[in-house]
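Incident review: delayed structure delivery

Summary: a single-chain prediction request sat in the queue longer than the usual turnaround. Root cause was a stuck worker, restarted by the on-call engineer. No data loss occurred. The affected request and its eventual output are reproduced below so the record is complete for anyone auditing the incident later.

Affected input:
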Amino acid sequence: MIHNKEAESEAWFYGFTRTVSAGLAHLISVAFPVFIAFFSRPGTSWFSWHPFLMTVAFGFLMTEAILLFSPRGSLIKRFSHKTKARVHWILQSLCGACAVLGLAAISYNKHLNGKAHFTSWHGLLGLITVCVVCVQSLAAVPLIYHSLAKGWSLAKLKRYHAASGLVTFLLGSTSLLLGLCSSWFTASVGGYAWYLAAVCPALSAVVIMNQVSSAYIAKKRLQS
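Output delivered after worker restart:
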């Protein structure tokens, strides 16, 4: 009897922490892009679009696309998995579009100012991340239209997609963190505000990693 109560309390606490962490990730996905938009003032220059679009892409769209499958934090929890998958793909496609536009904005800005392209870790990793996001979105098409995945196990495709998606999200989060170390951001934001901004993509990454790894472990236990 005591053992059952302990198990129930542990399950309740685990579920509570998952719900709180998912809620925190939702809050960050909105607050962080707004925070960056306040300092970048999109539309004032070509450069101003770069941090705004990249933060919207990876801080909001990609985060929300993955949280759709969270058992505790999905905003469309009651919808079917098929509907969630389609909304996920739409958000990921928008993420890719914003990322490409953000890359185009900074490339054109450097061209106008006669500066070299992709000379920093932030620039190189950002370029790699944008390419990976586009490939990831295209590779997900067979998961929606199963006829394109003939000869492939759908379960394996989903597993590979989840793993590669997590890597892509971590690349995006790392790119955002490196962007916060840029001369533009450090000149605009300092002190506790900088650390608060840096915590945002880091916390989101932890929440998403926990969600994806927990889902994979749960499936492995059911199969074993």
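Verification: The chain is about 80% helix and 0% strand.
Action items: add queue-age alerting; document worker restart procedure.
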